[in-house]
Amino acid sequence: MKAIAYTQHGLPIDDPASLVEVDLPRPVPGPRDLLVAVRAVSVNPVDTKVRNGMATSEPRVLGFDAVGRVEAVGNEVSLFKVGDEVFYAGSLIRPGSNAEFQLVDERIVGHKPRSLDDAHAAALPLTAITAWELLFDRFDIAEKSGKGQTLLLIGAGGGVGSILVQLARQLTGITVIGTASRDETKQWVRELGAHHVIDHGKPLGPQLEALGIQGVDYAISLTHTDQYYDQLVEIIKPQGKLAFIDDPKTLDGMKLKRKSISLHTESMFTRSTYQTPDMIKQHELLERVASLVDAGTLRTTLGEHFGRITAENLRRAHKLIESHTAKGKIVLESF
């Protein structure tokens, strides 16, 4: 089967050898696996982080979002059947979705939203899982709760932020404040439902005060956490909560003690990497996300369509991700 892989980590994305086309054997499903014929994928920051930082002794296929059709199932599969259209975000410990066929455990897969085409559905899984787990698992916020409380999202115009804004606005009563620095991303965040949008290129506190907001109950940093950390410590209310998803080199936890601020991390790969007993929750939340999309409650976060799934187009997508200027998700479709 055709696949796109890297064979040497750390190469600059402008180097044609950074991502190359390879031919690999078609995989065979294990007991709880689905064999999926991949039809569309999207690109995430984790793709670039793995390509840059993880050495490999053989071609490594990236890709952590996919839409496709189930071609075969393992002998213990109970949630899906051959012919089902599915979407999912895959696993760090298995070959990725930048291939014609991929194996994925049924417990982290959902049925594709019926109202979306492949490309628009491919934009959703990884970011939807991350956003859902942040709000409802890490912060333990109950749906329809949060009236009178505030949530600040640093980097709200990116992939995860684009879903977080919608989930918080549509499923809770929390006042949502997103940050963005460019006019187009500010408008995007407003369209997604943020009550307020402020500029993370300027001091955050004065902008919140100008809105009449004296501190926030929750803050989620989606990018450059170390850069905003001191401001967030000052902005978050006593006994508030802070979460991050990026990889700051170091954070001084003692700065949180005075206010008893709790610190949360999030990786949507935790359940699949460690095969946790509650792994099936990712299947359940993707099914819920699909139903919310089909009901018109959530919208896709596709930002740009980069054409077919080729090494050249994936290199272009990685380059845009590495520039930190992407709006929404970058999608590629068909081999």
UniProtKB/TrEMBL annotation:
It is found in: Cytoplasm. It holds the Pfam family ADH_zinc_N_2. Residues 14-332 form the Enoyl reductase (ER) domain. Belongs to the zinc-containing alcohol dehydrogenase family. Quinone oxidoreductase subfamily. One of its GO terms (cellular component) is cytoplasm. This is Zinc-type alcohol dehydrogenase-like protein. GO terms for molecular function: oxidoreductase activity; RNA binding; zinc ion binding. Its main location: cytoplasm. Transmembrane segments: none annotated. SMART domains: PKS_ER. Keywords: Cytoplasm, Metal-binding, NADP, Oxidoreductase, RNA-binding, Zinc. Homotetramer. InterPro entries: ADH-like_N, ADH_Zn_typ-1, ER, GroES-like_sf, NAD(P)-bd_dom_sf, Quin_OxRdtase/zeta-crystal_CS, Zinc-ADH_QOR/CCCR.
